[in-house]
Design a protein that fits this description.
The chain is mainly alpha-helical. It has a domain of about 90 residues. The protein has five helices and no strands. The mean pLDDT is about 80.
Length: about 140
């Protein structure tokens, strides 16, 4: 195993400049697209380079779908119209998964929030987004 590469000052400055340009949305969009592409590969829908036959791993396909579905809501508010193609690709991947597995991808389970104890502020009161007269 080789030692980590030492970067020149110029290379470090270029890396820093690139980091300054990045936003969390850039990373989330890249992760979303990567998960959809990986899901298609794991579903056996896309052949790996070199013409080898595609290998199918539906568990990893399901995980890729779940990850993409978790990221999508984080981006929709700011990039909804721009995500039409990505949403279509995710829908197609989900339909392929259902056909291949004979089931449906499980939706993330919504847990019921614990009710506040008497005298304790609830989530709406502590969020700072709800005005309550007298408080």
């Amino acid at each position: 195993m080789s030692a980590p590469q030492d970067f020149t000052e110029e290379e470090l400055a270029q890396l820093e400049a690139e980091m300054d340009k990045l936003t969390p949305d850039d990373i989330l969009i890249q992760a979303l697209v990567t998960l959809i592409n990986l899901g298609a590969r794991k579903a056996g829908l896309a052949a790996p380079p070199g013409g080898a036959p595609p290998k199918r791993d539906l568990e990893q396909t399901r995980e890729a779908i779940e990850g993409a579905r978790a990221i999508l809501p984080l981006l929709e508010a700011r990039h909804g119209a721009e995500l039409a193609g990505v949403k279509d690709a995710l829908s197609r991947l989900q339909m392929a998964f259902v056909q291949l597995s004979g089931g449906t991808p499980e939706a993330p389970e919504a847990s019921e929030p614990e009710p506040p104890k008497p005298g304790e502020a609830g989530p709406a009161q502590t969020s700072g987004r709800l005005w309550i007269p007298g408080q």
